[in-house]
Automatic annotation (TrEMBL):
It comes from the Bacteria. Its EC number is 2.7.1.-. Pfam families: GHMP_kinases_N (PF00288). Residues 60-126 form the GHMP kinase N-terminal domain. InterPro entries: GHMP_kinase_N_dom, Ribosomal_Su5_D2-typ_SF, Ribsml_uS5_D2-typ_fold_subgr. Signal peptide: none annotated. Keywords: Kinase, Transferase. It is an enzyme of class 2 (transferase). One of its GO terms (molecular function) is ATP binding. This is Putative kinase involved in propanediol utilization.
């Protein structure tokens, strides 16, 4: 068959529960949410070009990496995104795009889109999140590339906002002062990491939110967010448990018990008050997600692409 079609979906994140360094090696613990990048990849086994949105440079990079790794010089096709994540906010938009496109292409070719394979592709392009793994996973996202599943996702609701702008992941992780920042904060990050591991193992959102708050406070030194302290105070006043932030992005979110404890009217009221108090450029409510990808091959009946 000249054509093959795959469809894959990868979740984004509400920043990271914890990010810092251990013995000088950067790592992060992702916070997967119910927002996604979803890609349909139609492969043509008799061409070499790619038709995809101009801004999806990293998706193009992963397709070229995939061609080389599989030894398929005559491979091209079309990429269409049915779901996309906001870019530059720290929601793992690049990692989710790369992962969804690679998984869709692999499954179309009859290859296994396993998480480790997808992580390898992503990390060869840029420092990446661990959203391709199910559950909550820590990953050495800059060097080493080791990863470890910490446990299943803990149910939570996030009231997320930012005040505009964008941060490039590659540029952030190349900052010369970053290693010194991580060194100074290593003790606090160690405490946050231990709390996060306990929270995940015990399904204790309060501990996890405390870990997120510690790490977010450490991050202010290198990625300042002007409304951090008044927002944290407001979240706690409203029954939230703490905050989580995008360490290399603009997003900041209050952590609340899952929506079963908060009805729609309460959520709407929180959104309205947050908009009035903090006048963000972006405001939304997310729920935690189990992480990992979903990928399917689509059977086609004629060679029309």
């Amino acid at each position: 068959m000249d054509f093959a079609v795959g469809l894959a979906r990868c979740p984004g994140t509400c920043g990271e529960w914890v990010q810092g360094a251990r013995d000088g090696v950067p790592f992060l613990i992702d916070c997967p949410i119910d927002r996604f990048s979803e890609a349909r990849v139609t492969l043509n086994l008799n061409t070499t070009g790619w038709d995809l949105p101009l801004n999806k440079v990293k998706a193009l990079q992963v397709l070229e990496l995939l061609k080389k790794s599989l030894g398929l010089p005559r491979l091209g096709g079309k990429v269409e995104f049915s779901l996309q994540l906001p870019e530059g906010k720290g929601m793992a938009s690049s990692t989710a795009d790369i992962t969804a496109v690679a998984a869709a292409a692999l499954v179309a070719l009859g290859e296994e889109p396993d998480s480790e394979r997808l992580a390898d592709f992503a990390l060869r392009i840029e420092p990446s999140d661990s959203v391709m793994f199910p559950g909550i996973t820590e990953i050495e996202h800059v060097q080493g590339h080791n990863h470890r599943l910490l446990g299943p996702t803990v149910p939570a609701l996030f009231l997320a906002l930012d005040w505009g702008g964008a941060i490039d992941t590659k540029v952030f992780n190349a900052r010369p002062e970053l290693s010194e920042h991580y060194r100074c904060q290593e003790s606090a990050i160690k405490s946050a990491y231990q709390l996060a591991c306990e929270g995940i193992k015990q399904g204790d959102l309060e501990k996890l939110a405390r870990a997120g708050t510690i790490s977010a406070q450490c991050n202010l030194e290198i990625n300042h967010k002007s409304f951090f302290h008044p927002f944290l105070a407001w979240v706690l006043q409203k029954g939230g448990l703490g905050v989580v932030t995008a360490h290399s992005g603009t997003l900041l979110a209050g952590v609340f018990p899952p929506s079963g404890a908060l009805n729609q009217d309460v959520c709407r009221s929180l959104l309205n008050e947050a908009q009035q108090r903090f006048t963000p450029a972006y405001l939304d409510i997310f729920h935690s997600h189990s992480g990992g990808i979903v990928a399917n091959k689509i059977e086609i009946t004629e060679n029309t692409g």
